[in-house]
Every structure is written in C-alpha cells, then in structure tokens.
Amino acid sequence: MDEALTALEGESTLVAIVITGAGAKFFSSGGDIKQYSKLVTREQLQSAFERPRRLLDRLEALPFPVIAAVNGIAMGGGAELMLACDLRLAAPTASIGFPYVRLGLIPGWHGSERLARVCGYANAMHLLATGDSVDAEEARRLGLINRISGDMPVVDAALALVDKLARAAPLSLAATKRVLLGACQLPREQARRLAEGDFADLWMSEDHREAEAAFAAKRRPSFKGK
C-alpha cells in the first residue's frame, strides 16, 4: 500500500480511490498479534508502528477522496485504516470493532483521535472502552460508515459513488476535502482563512467560468481542473 500511494500521489487525473479487502469475509482483521509479541523495546515498537502511522496520514492527505468499501470484518488496525478514509461504505454483513482494551492497549495508529472526530467523544469512548463490535446498521447510526450497500456488492456501490464524484469540478472536490479536514484539525480562524482562500481561488478558476457558461446554456460542464 505504501508503494501504491507513492505512485498515486503524483497523479492529477484521479477522481478517487477505493480500498477494500480481498475475498468476502474480511476488510482487514488488523495486526498480527503473534508477530507483535516480538516487539519488546520502545525502539522496536516505534520502528514497527511509525510506517503504518505515516501511511494513514498520507492516505488522509491525498488530494482526492478515498473510499473504504468495507466488505466484511474490520477489526483493530483494519478499523483504523477505514477511519483514515474520507467516505466509508459497508456491506450489510460488515462488522467493525476496536478490541484494544482486551489486549491491554489503545489504538496505535492515531485511531482514537480519528474515532472521536468521526462519531463524537461518548460514542468513541463506548466503542473503545467496551471493545464491542458493531454491525453495519449500528455503524451507520454512529457515523462510522456513510452508507450500507444493500443488495449491491459494496465495491460496485463504491464505484457508483466514484461516478458521481467524477461529475464534480476536480479543483472543487480537492478543496472540499482540504477545507473539511481543516475544519476538523485546525484552529477556527485558521480553518476559516483556508476556506476563504480556497473559495476565492475557485471563483477565479476556469472551471467555475465553464460551470457558469454551462448553466446558462443548459448543458453539462466540461471541467479541466484549471
């Protein structure tokens, strides 16, 4: 995944990317507990966990939406990976959990911060303190996922969403992600300045002029990302 992200970061034509699990049972079962038992010093722990932490930060910072198609069980690190995505769709059979307290731990990849941001302090506290898993319906109610795919395979539902995103102006889509992340992560005045600057840049863009012309002509705009 690290190598794939390196290849994607230079792409300027992508609308979105979709992350899903192989097969029908797991989105991701999380870390290898037997392998982790070999980490016995803080230096070893930092070395092993720094790369996935950086990976999820890079995923979150991509300039286009990242969609998690949760096709089955998402546990621990797998659930943290899901939280680093911008949009999260789930199959009706999906199950999501953060069972860290049963291992004497907390999330290791900054999942606590992302979970609190996604579903609020009290819900995050309940999920982490109990370690309980939730099904797709409960995950949607809590805000862990945005939609349940229903009868449609979850990857197909994700690709249908990508088709909708493809109708948006690319610069506007990127700015939407940037401004929303800023609203969640930055002090209020700094987030507002970011939004004001992006709004002005978009107003002056060729794509905005094209959208105005297309509206007047009652046709679909042809965006160029300029």
Keywords:
2-enoyl-CoA Hydratase, Chain A, domain 1; alpha/beta; 226 residues; 11 helices; 2 domains; 53% helix; 4-stranded parallel β-sheet
Task: Describe the protein.
- This protein has 226 residues and is α/β, with parallel strands linked by helices.
- The protein has two domains: 2-165, 2-enoyl-CoA Hydratase, Chain A, domain 1, CATH 3.90.226.10; 170-217.
- The protein contains eleven helices and eight strands.
- It has helices spanning 2-8, 33-36, 42-61, 77-83, 111-119, 121-130, 136-142, 154-165, 170-185, 188-203, 206-217; strands at 17-20, 26-28, 66-70, 73-75, 87-90, 95-97, 133-135, 147-148.
- It has a four-stranded parallel sheet, sandwiched between helices.
- The longest helix is centred in the N-terminal third of the chain and has 20 residues, at 42-61.
- The chain is globular and about 65 Å long.
